[in-house]
Amino acid sequence: MRGNFSPLFRVFVLLGFENLLPPSLFCLSFLSFSSLYMSRGASSLRGSGVFGRVSPLGRTTVMTTTTAPRSTGPAGAASRASSSRKGEKKWWRQSATFFPDAKRNRAPRRPSTTTRAAITRTTAFAATSSIEREEHVRRDNFTYPPEYLDLGPRIKKALVDCAAFDPEQYDLVCDVRSPSEYKDDHLPFAISTPVLTDEQRAQIGTMYVQVDPFEAKKLGAKLTSENLGKILEQHFLHLPKTTKVCVYCFRGGERSLSLAHVLSRIGFDVSYVPGGYKKYRETTLKYLKEDVTKFHFHVIAGKTGCAKGKLLDALEKRGAQVIDLERFAEHRGSVLGEDPENGFTGQPSQKMFDSRLAHKMRKFDEKRVIFVEGESSMIGRVQIPTTTWKRMGESKATILNIPMEHRVKWIRQNYEHFETTEVPRLLEKLQVLEKRVGNERINQWRSLIAEKKWDQFVEEILVHHYDRAYEQASKRSRPNDFDRKSGERKGVDQGGADELFLENLEEQTYDDAAKLLMKKYDKVL
């Protein structure tokens, strides 16, 4: 045996050749020793009797009983690199003698790419683990050098990807991003406290790229300081010291920390969000894709005008778990469904809709059923997340039905603006339906509107447009409720949807219906 191979390494090899070690243990030991020799060279271990350890920098360091003075500078570095290369070449020459092939009488080939990759992964894993351990110790026991100011633990971390995170636990959630970013989406209950306006943010970003990062930072600090004074005056001067504040920006960097630092120095209880809104958005999408599958839904279906939303309100008042998708989307799910309460300014963004839905569902008990109104996959311009909509289509449903006269009454009550101030908008919207119902029927409806025959107009549009659209949408969203051959809706005894008929729109009628549904379906699973 060559003298510069460790005795312990020889023992492992001999035991392996004599089949005294399990193959898995032998392979593991071989990879470990091989990685050691490949990284430093066998010659560096001659006479040491010590195998070394993995340093926090990811390199194998070797402890020897005797040490020679280490050369420094470029010459020393070149010498060490040369020694390492020599040692590596020598290792491959020695391996031909140390691992003879008894049957073929030839040395083994250099390890394959797969083997070398495995060796590299083994070494890298050990190095990473060591780094993490030392970093953990360093963070826990870290003290500033004497020439630095120790600011101490003043700003806590609010981890949005933690199940326990709830923005309602804070007295104030501050979104320091620009107003346009806030409008697109924000954490629930957050207020807009921009440290930079949209124009200022664009100006600094352009300067950062085209002029100089340092100059951009100086201007950013000036503008941020001015805006921080306004934020303090508007939102914090009247608040007590015990106020709990959570601050976030897009990535959890300079913008959020600028406000968090000032508030913490004042004495407020301050937290900031590492990763910022970007991390929150990732967490929301993951929740809507994966965690929603654990919930069970019960769909309240029915034709337009059956006051399904009123039944959801009655269920929620009784303590049921309810999701009102139309309320989150600020749209009633039809061509005339724009919400007049927001001044016809449009719907929230898809991101905002997702945030509202995820926040509501995080508060639900997965062992109880969730009541939700049956919808198409699109509510106006926003889309119900795929996993949620699929779970709704697979769930049990109750079809609500009321007399036509009460359907007409409900429609006129909730779309009153089309009879008063928004008649031109109604006529404009009807033009969209021309391809579906024909030009002749559109002209008939226009005449009824001009003559203010509202009951007749509403009944006409319900029968000839909305009811037909409902049947088509039901077959797409709930195919299991229909017979595949005939296309007819299945009965309850055939596994189809349940049916619930209500005689009128009275509050007591809908409260009784809610009580009945909860007794029948809202059971702890």
Write the layout of secondary structure elements.
Elements: H1 7-17, H2 23-40, E1 53-54, E2 60-61, H3 73-98, H4 113-140, E3 155-157, E4 172-175, H5 179-184, E5 190-192, H6 198-210, H7 213-235, E6 244-248, H8 254-266, E7 269-272, H9 276-290, E8 296-302, H10 308-317, E9 321-323, H11 325-329, H12 350-361, E10 369-373, E11 378-379, E12 382-383, H13 386-394, E13 396-401, H14 404-414, H15 423-430, H16 434-437, H17 439-450, H18 454-477, E14 498-501, H19 507-521
Residue stretches low in confidence (pLDDT < 50, at least 5 long) are 1-5, 36-75, 77-108, 116-140
- Describe the global form: elongated
Main β sheet profile: 5 strands, parallel
Mean pLDDT: 79
How many domain units?
A: 3
CATH architecture of the largest domain: 3-Layer(aba) Sandwich
Structural class estimated from helices and strands: alpha/beta
Oligomeric state as shown = single chain
Q: What is the CATH class name of the largest domain? A: Alpha Beta
Strand order of the largest sheet: 3-7-6-4-5
CATH topology of the largest domain: Rossmann fold
Give the N-to-C terminal Cα separation.
70 Å
Structure description:
The chain is an alpha/beta fold and 525 residues long. It has 3 domains: 7-140, no CATH class; 155-282, Oxidized Rhodanese, domain 1, CATH 3.40.250; 295-521, Rossmann fold (3-Layer(aba) Sandwich), CATH 3.40.50. Helices cover 50% and strands 10% of the residues. Strands 3-7-6-4-5 form a 5-stranded parallel β-sheet, covered by helices on one side. The chain has a 5-stranded parallel β-sheet with strand order 9-10-8-13-14, with helices on both faces. The protein has a two-stranded antiparallel sheet with strand order 1-2. The two termini are 70 Å apart.
